[in-house]
Design brief:
By secondary structure, this protein is an alpha+beta fold. 39% of the residues lie in helices and 18% in strands. Helix 8 crosses helix 10, helix 10 packs antiparallel against helix 11 and helix 16 (421-427) runs antiparallel to helix 17.
Length: 759
């Protein structure tokens, strides 16, 4: 989806794996929503959350820049946050709503002063450099998060139980009255959203009885009990419509999740003749992909299980999946395609495993093999599909499936060493101590940022910067962060996500599929064992080939192409060439291998001697002492030396915009100052090559130009010949790096510049 418009990107595609993940987690979402409405309005997990948020704020405050951490004003802020955290840690979890309100109110008294304390810290660092400014921004966000962690529950209480403050001062006479038993759920416990919206009927009746016939030894006690009961009852009834609305909204979301799950039809992704799921459905072409998931150890396992459980596909599909086993250390594991942690462990986020079953033994053996492989490569373990340290023209990290050789059918698994922290989070479900130790090792290797662990650490030497031991892929992928959160939450909640998934009757009916035992005498597969025996330390990618020409006297012009996919530039070793955007010629060009005299050129004139030359051989063609043209992956370069003056010209195409940049650099090696005049030259076409070539003079009639003096630029366009024709625009701008004023002028009449009847 386009992140700005939320429109689906073309081609439209329905992924089998993502469909299975969505359906499975919709089941979990439904149960979770219903659980949330039936659980106490406030629970002990809130205190853990406040304590962790305060701890993170302290960490940001103490681990920030030296100027921030050392500021005198940071002391009071640190003390207040630490006091809040201490209070949360030592206080037992409240039982009743009144106790909750008392505790949260006391915490809010501390939290409300934190923003002012932070402003004192910010004022103490007035001239913040970049590191201080970044640290201040992080601490500000952390302080705001602490305040929100306290005030969020208070807002919930205010919205659903605005009468809760009365529970902190219950009249003593009520505790001995006959109605107290009916009031216990209200006074001594924390009600749920369901109770607030639909329950508490007995408590309301008891409150009405107390208000009508209050208990007490004297008139004052009776009056107080009656007023208290009446106020609480009125508060419950006044807040009930809001509670009913919140409950209805949660139940509606749960119902929507149920309907989406039940109406998910996996049959459209299934090939009955193969009894396998396709990779996905291409809606633009209206057909299934011609690739299929045919292994039990794959990320499609959840989709296959749910499809069988729903009855969308026959049970034979499950047993059609390949169950090849391979040696994995001291155990056996199912063979997968790329042997990534994603394939093996992602389904465990919601699916149970049973001890001594095929899937359970596979997952444990895979984690052991990952740990062993990390030791072999002398890096942290946890290899899975992820981004790696290579970017495209849009500066976007590239993505690929990585794995452990010997377990995957994919060739070349030993060529790359890319460690993804989210893989260690997935491994928490199998080996918690080893996974925590590995995450700590990654943290020490700077794989963690302010928002959590980065996407990956690339240890492939061909992609590591010079002098570095690793390359951190500093990106956060929502999919991988989400899997990490679910895995962490599962470990902290005794795998409630799995319990919710398996609470569905349809899922329970198919659980036997997950309890397949390990074969007693398996015939082991050995996928690409040569990669296991010889683990290379590096995949030496072939270096980008640079071509260099020391002469223009080649049999035919040597050409080089630069492009960002839309805008293209062709140059030759003599300096000729063209510029195009799509099928539109930006500059005029005629193919002539003999003369090679078309392109974008520079004329350089010595104002003292009158000598004229060009950085490349064309268009002046003057002899020089030394000449060289070099073509590399990212640019073209021309060097020439005339006496004691070096001229260097670079040509690049912007990866982000449809533009080219040509930079000319002069190096004066003599003791005499040189005054130079540089003139750029090209002929505007702004038309399809065939149209411009058919009638150049006629084509010129439609070109319009305008000088923009403030921008040192010339704007040019082609006047449309009809209302349906779009008007193309272009610009030519000069920028000086000399530090002084950039004196410039322009001429758009070719005849006035080079004269008539000259080519």
């Amino acid at each position: 989806y386009d992140t700005e418009t939320l429109q689906p990107l073309r081609p439209g595609y329905v992924s089998t794996v993502d469909s299975g993940n969505l359906a499975g987690h919709l089941l979990v979402l439904r149960i979770g929503l219903l659980e949330a409405t039936e659980a106490p309005l406030l629970g002990p997990q809130l205190l853990d959350g406040i304590a962790d948020t305060a701890l993170l704020a302290l960490d940001d405050l103490t681990s920030g820049s030296a100027g921030l951490a050392g500021a005198e004003a940071a002391g009071p802020l640190r003390a207040d946050i630490d006091e809040l955290r201490r209070r949360v840690t030592i206080e037992p979890a409240p039982e009743s709503l009144g106790e909750w309100l008392s505790l949260l109110s006391s915490l809010d008294a501390i939290a409300e002063g934190l923003p002012a304390r932070f402003e004192d810290v910010a004022a103490a660092v007035p001239d913040a450099d970049a590191s201080d400014a970044g640290a201040l921004a992080r601490v500000r966000a952390s302080v705001n998060a602490v305040v929100a962690s306290v005030r969020g529950p208070l807002r919930d209480v205010s919205a659903h139980a605005p009468w809760a403050h009365l529970l902190t001062d219950v009249p003593p006479s009520l505790r001995s009255c006959p109605q107290y038993g009916a009031l216990c759920p209200l006074i001594e416990h924390t009600p749920s959203l369901v109770g607030l919206a639909e329950g508490l009927d007995a408590a309301l009746t008891a409150l009405d009885d107390v208000a009508a016939d209050p208990p007490g030894d004297d008139e004052t006690a009776c009056s107080r009990a009656a007023e208290w009961a009446s106020t609480v009852a009125d508060g419950i009834r006044a807040a009930r419509p809001g509670c009913v609305h919140a409950l209805a909204s949660a139940r509606l979301q749960a119902e929507i999740a149920r309907e989406m799950w039940e109406h998910t039809d996996f049959r459209m992704l299934y090939d009955p003749s193969r009894q396998l799921f396709s990779i996905g459905f291409n809606s633009s072409e209206g057909k299934l992909d011609n690739s299929f998931y045919d292994m039990l150890a794959s990320e499609c396992r959840l989709a296959s299980f749910l499809a069988v459980a729903k009855g969308d596909v026959p049970q034979d599909h499950w047993f059609r999946l390949s169950r090849q086993l391979a040696q994995a250390g001291s155990g056996h594991a199912l063979v997968s395609w790329s042997a990534s942690m994603f394939e093996y462990l992602m389904p465990l986020l919601v699916m149970r495993t049973w001890p001594e079953t095929l899937l359970d033994e596979t997952c444990r053996a895979v984690v052991r093999r990952q740990i062993e492989y990390g030791k072999q490569r002398e890096v942290p373990w946890g290899i899975s599909e992820s981004a790696f340290n290579a970017k495209d023209a849009d500066l976007t990290y590239q993505y690929q499936a990585f794995g452990v050789p010997g377990l995957g059918l994919k060739r070349g698994l030993s060529d790359d060493v890319v460690v993804a922290p989210y893989a260690s989070m997935l491994a928490l479900q199998v080996d918690r101590p080893a996974a925590l130790a590995n995450l700590e090792a990654l943290r020490k290797r700077e794989a963690q940022g302010w928002f959590g662990f980065y996407e990956a650490v690339d240890y492939t030497p061909a992609r590591i910067p010079a002098g570095a031991r690793r390359a951190i892929v500093k990106a956060y992928f929502a999919h991988h962060q989400g899997m990490g959160f679910v895995a962490l939450a599962g470990e902290l909640s005794e795998h409630r996500m799995r319990e919710r998934f398996h609470a569905d009757p349809m899922v329970r009916s198919a659980e036997l599929l997950l309890q397949e035992r390990v074969p007693r005498h398996p015939q082991l597969a050995r996928p690409h064992t040569e990669e296991v025996r010889f683990v290379r330390s590096v995949r030496e990618l072939p270096p980008a080939l640079d071509r260099s020409y020391g002469s223009v006297d080649t049999y035919t012009p040597a050409t080089h192409f630069l492009s960002n996919g839309s805008y293209s530039v062709m140059v030759t070793n003599a300096g000729g060439g063209y510029s195009r955007r799509g099928d539109m010629a930006v500059s005029r060009y005629r193919e002539d291998v003999t003369r090679d005299c078309w392109g974008t050129f520079f004329f350089v004139r010595d104002l003292d001697t009158g000598e004229v030359w060009s950085p490349a051989h064309q268009p002046v063609g003057s002899p020089c002492e030394d000449y060289r043209a070099t073509f590399s992956e990212s640019k073209a370069e021309y060097w020439r030396r005339d006496a004691e003056l070096d001229t260097h010209c670079e040509v690049v195409v912007s990866p982000e915009d449809d533009a080219e940049v040509r930079r000319v650099t002069f190096s004066n090696r003599s003791r005499t100052p040189r005054r130079l005049e540089v003139t750029s030259y090209f002929e505007v076409a702004l038309a399809p090559q065939a149209a411009d070539q058919a009638h150049k003079a006629f084509s010129n009639l439609f070109v319009e130009t305008e000088a923009l003096a403030d921008l040192h630029a010339v704007l040019f366009s082609r006047r449309p010949r009809s209302a349906a024709e779009a008007r193309p625009w272009g610009f030519h701008v000069v920028a000086c790096e000399s530090g002084g004023a950039c004196d410039w002028s322009c001429e758009t009449d070719r005849a006035r510049f080079i004269g008539r009847l000259r080519q």
